[in-house]
Design brief:
Length: 233
Amino acid sequence: MLTPGLQTTGILLWQITNQSLNVAVNNANANKSTPLSNSVIAKSYLLAVSASCSVALGLNALAPRLKKLSPSTRTILTRLVPFAAVASAGALNVFLMRGEEIRKGIDVYAVMSDSEKQRREKEGGEVPSLGKSKKAATLAVGETALSRVLNATPIMVIPPLVLVRLQQTNWLKRRPRMTLPINLGLILTTSIFALPLALGAFPQRQAVGAQTLEKEFWDQGGQEGKVEFNRGI
């Protein structure tokens, strides 16, 4: 998707591939207390693919027509089209795939102290759920959608902008075949250093004050009056 000058067929192919991966990731890492049906998965996949392809093709067609902008600015906007498509469709994909969680709620649990955790480990058995919370589900899905944008930002913004600058140098102009390996190197370097930071922006196991959820949970908080839930990834 970050290859400069990618044509329509390539754009469609890579957007479809990316959203196929997103559906698999969102399905595998969703909060399993509210299972997804095959029809919901199929509908989410089709809508996300349509959104990403529409954004990518639409912005690719729009950028060259912005005649009031300088050629360098239009080039930069064109290079950022994949980010806009991936970020918007990725966030939409999360809401579509996990919308059932928002409608039905997800399981929340009382936060246990260290001594309670040790006792639970010795006794065995599962921690009982306090019930399903729609507010917790909204927070979990919203943070996951935001994390998709954060994950895409460093990889899909930094390399294209750096590559645009490098392509203006005489060295790369004389060696156009080096564009692809340099682009791949920039993506790899950015992934190594920036992606872990983006992934760690929100904890998978989220703890919040019981008072921030529905009234039925206000008196059921555990340690420090908090409850926790699985946000997903």
